[in-house]
Amino acid sequence: MKLAISCQLDYKIEYQTPLVLMLRPRSGAGQWVIKEEYLLEPSVPVTEYTDLYGNLCQRVFTPDGSFSIKTSAIVDVADQIDVDFSANFVPVQELPDDCLIYILPSRYCESDKLGNLAASIVAHVETGYEQVEAIRTWINTNIRYEYGHSNASTSAQDTAQSRIGVCRDFSHLGVALCRSMNIPARFVVGYLYELKPMDLHAWFEAYLGGRWYTFDATQTEPRGNRVVLAYGRDAADVALATQFGNMELQTMWVAVEPAPEQ
Predict the structure, then answer these.
(1) Which architecture does CATH list for 2-78+240-258?
(2) How much is the pTM?
(3) Cα 184 to the chain's mean position, in Å?
(4) How far is CA 177 from CA 1, 129, 136, in A?
(5) What is the pLDDT of residues 173-182, one digit of tens each?
(6) CATH 3.10.620.30: does it fit domain 92-221?
(7) Shortest CA distance to 221 belongs to which of 108, 70, 81?
């Protein structure tokens, strides 16, 4: 399916402020960027770099006053995510070098503190894909999705104790539980078609059988039509906007629709 995605951020800025943005999807596994537009109002110089996780990042020095960022793209995505219960657990000694960082604890994913919970969830499950699916199902069943009970400091361990959160919290918990079983897992932020209410979304991926698989603990069944914006160890690595000064986000608007026929 071809999706038309768009996002707008409107800021009020007291003084000129350095800002790092992460708003451009890149073509890769499961998605192809057909067309893209990136507008800054007022226009200011932009430089771009690729971070440690392969994400496209834009650096700007904002003006004071009102400042808007508008991005849009048409992306060809998979209608379904791959599901493979035969995908095996990969022993640590056989993991690619770039996967090793994803089995370590990180700021919001204290995998070293959740081993007992993970072990209880997968106690009667075969290794590999079935374990991660058991983790995903447990989170979907046992964690209540509700706004207002978590914040930017909430970690996987916090969510495991409170049993309540939003997509960010569900994903952090999934990542941490996988890592506690020595399964590489990474945090993903992006767009999901027909998400209600519409917003940017978070899910996680696990490395099994020599490749990455998508898991979304907020959903009751596998859903495709996703556009990945960024990957990281946890939410600290995939912030859509990182500011280095005093600026206020006044409005944020997100849309995901079928792309018009050409």
Answers:
(1) Sandwich (2.60)
(2) 0.96
(3) 15
(4) 32, 13, 9
(5) 999 999 999 9
(6) yes
(7) 81
